[in-house]
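Help! Submission page says 'invalid entity' but I think these are all valid:
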Amino acid sequence: MQTNILNIDTICAVATPFGMGAIAMVRVSGPNAISIVSQLFVRNGKPFDLEEMVPNKVYHGHIMDKGKILDEVLVYFFKAPHSFTGEDSAEISMHGSIYVQQKLIQVLIDHGCRMAEAGEFTRRAFVNRKFDLIQAEAIADLISSESEAAHRVAINQLKGGFSKELQVMRSKLLEMTSLIELELDFSEEDVEFADRSQLKALLKETLTHVDKLKDSFRLGNAIKNGIPVVIVGQTNTGKSTLLNALLGEDRAIVSDIAGTTRDTIEETLNINGILYRFIDTAGLRKTDETIEKIGIERSYKKIAEANVVIGMLDATTGYEAMLSAANDIQSKVDLSIQQLILCINKVDTMADQGETLLGNLRFDLDNDGILVICLSAKHGFGLNDLYNALKHSQPYAAPDATLVTNIRHYEALLYASDSLKSVQQGLEKDIPIDLISQDLRQALHYLGSITGEITTDDVLGTIFSRFCIGK
Ligand SMILES: Nc1nc2c(ncn2[C@@H]2O[C@H](COP(=O)(O)OP(=O)(O)OP(=O)(O)O)[C@@H](O)[C@H]2O)c(=O)[nH]1
Ligand SMILES: [Mg+2]
């Protein structure tokens, strides 16, 4: 087992959220965890006898502070390596008074523990090879998951599917690299240990796999942070009214003055287990007003970043104006990667002409990938059609498909892909084998950095500092 300077201290922290609650849990981990906690623990009125300690068993008793009862608790002991961190550990479940929590931490520190740093328990687990970096990061994702979809992606990564895929790729590439490097040792003798056509085939396969993982980030990131859905259109079409209707609250200012919304407004909403990030934008129109211009530039930027674009059309402006506005919005959307949903809004003003408008617009648009629906944002009419359109617009991955959700992984895959492309070009152009081997090593490095096989302390520090204390 790998040892690390981190393992010397015994650390402690409250693992439950800060504040008062029915129950709180304190974690202790490190070489003295069991002895320190047992010193403070009294069972059936007698000091806890370490000799009788059975790991993974729940003990009921009291935590004592200088001869006085601090709290009635449940204590679990874990023996290394069979614990979350891989070290000797103890967990104390107690009443969730803020005073009791702080007092217990103080007593633990008085007995030789140190306050844990953010993510230190998970970092120790990683150092002790309980899991790899992907899985450690998946724990953070699991804790922060806000929707069923985000939860599912985190669980998949925690199960190790992504790690396994990377391991298989790396070991194949490593084998090839060793053969190539063997040729370097025999460079005088003009021998080829690595079969070139096999190497090319392997590279093609690996590159396709790496690119597939890299491209899954768009969806993976959307699932984790909310699928970005931008609401765009000309001024006064009812964009802010729609945002408010979706959220069920008056989040954005609505008025009949054109150009009311100047900046983008973002809010997340969970619809049927999927987290969406709705973005209301400044209405699109020609203007000389500086602030409004900046707002409109932001609207265009948000269109480019969105997975789904809701194009708001105002039924009261007449069919020709709506069609021209629809074409204008369509020209800003990349239909190969984005979904466009056009909403004919304010149909409440149209008596029964809404359906005719809908049919005409569907007919006149030159792409059947665009969804068109009728809406009255003000009266909440058509919202169900919009929910359905959103559901259908999502390119859903298979339940157990690997999705990259972490920007660090995405970056590493991007660099690995570039390095593999250099290897491919090198082989085509017959460049010296030592340069090819360098690019292969680079690709291996980037792939290895994702699971944490290759990392520096700085990288680990940055990753784990994003965790909360007690995790
Ligand atoms: N009759 C009717 N009026 C609506 C509907 N939706 C919005 N409106 C009205 O249209 C006007 C403009 O609504 P907003 O939501 O502020 O429009 P916007 O697109 O956000 O406008 P800007 O922020 O200026 O770009 C307001 O007076 C709304 O009450 C609707 O479904 N029916
Ligand atoms: Mg608005």
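Support: the input was valid. A stray whitespace character was the problem, and the output above is from the cleaned input. Confidence is low (pLDDT under 50) at residues 1-5.
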